């Protein structure tokens, strides 16, 4: 009887150990799956961030090109040749000779 009770105890102990082992294996596999999911998520976030960074760099390059074009346009508009051309063409003003300035001032003096 003692022998039989010992065998039953050993069998029950073995069954309990197997149950615990299955439980720990399940927990271990669950943790591995969780780590895998987190890694995939982080990798996808990294790819998204890299794509967004690349998009921002392209936008920065486009803005830099536009800035250079605007600066060139500003310098062209500020040039004296452009101003003279617009004064002559759009405002229909002609350059005044120095003799005309003297004659205007002489006329004012005569009128007074």
H/E series: HHH
Mean pLDDT: 84
Low-pLDDT stretches are none
* Major β-sheet profile: none
What's the domain count?
1
Please give the share of residues in helix: over 70%
Beta-sheet strand percentage?
Answer: under 5%
How many separate helices? 3
- Outline: rod-shaped
Sheet/helix structural class = mainly alpha
Short description:
The chain is an all-alpha fold and 112 residues long.
What are the defining features of this structure?
3 helices, 112 residues, mainly alpha, 90% helix
Would you give an account of this structure?
- The protein is mainly α and 112 residues long.
- It has one domain.
- Helices cover 90% and strands 0% of the residues.
- It is built from three helices and no strands.
- It has helices spanning 2-78, 80-89, 98-111.
- The longest helix has 77 residues, at 2-78.
- The protein is rod-shaped and about 140 Å long.
Could you give the topology of this structure?
Elements: H1 2-78, H2 80-89, H3 98-111
